[in-house]
Design goal:
Elongation Factor Tu (Ef-tu), domain 3; 5 helices; alpha/beta; globular; 2 domains; Rossmann fold; 6-stranded antiparallel β-sheet; FAD-bd_FR_type
Amino acid sequence: MARAAVPGRLGERLRWRPAELTGRRAESALAHTLAFDVPGWPGHLAGQHVDVRLTAEDGYSTQRSYSLASAPDADRIELTVQRVRDGEVSPYLADVLDVGDLVEVRGPVGGWFVWRPEQTEPVLLVAGGSGLVPLMAMVRTRRAAGSKAPFRLLYSVRSPEDRLYVSELDGSEPGLETVCIYTRGAPAGWPRPAGRLAARDLSEAGWPPRSAPLCYVCGPTGFVETAADLLVDLGHAPERIRTERFGPSGG
């Protein structure tokens, strides 16, 4: 049974909880989706994230933040972790953590960069690389809730091999339009040459400003700043643009 996060219970949400890995699946050569059971999970909203803490036998601990990839689903959460070269946490999560192993999680965290099923206005999702993860939680929440809110997703990724959630973003879901742009290597015959996100991409694949869409942009800092500026230049109201960015964290 789905359960939404309860506003105001800050102490409850910031308590560390044991999380048991119950399954994993590969999304790309570098990324895996990890499913955890978290007893007593307070619920979350699409777009929120969690802190994950690892503790060694000698007491050393380290933590990283990861976006939630799943729709609300009782005590079960999913994270998609992309391995960072020479990283400290992501290689362990992506390659070593086994079913039945425990980590600790804290959250959910965040209240601005979220989408709720009761929202009905058009939505534009703009993802750069693994910035797709929290936006995928929005797509899945929309699907689980049976929402009719029209979604459009513009997904910027290096190459076809780097794409996440390929089977779910195959263009068959009613009310969800997905356009991929490739920055390093496009497939043979692809209608758009490889290159960085441009105003034309947002104009052609996104909603016109007169539709007053709610825009969610997530990815590396440079990508997010560029995309947000382009949206404003195209006439979208700044207050209708919500951004989430990430940068180097040690992996």
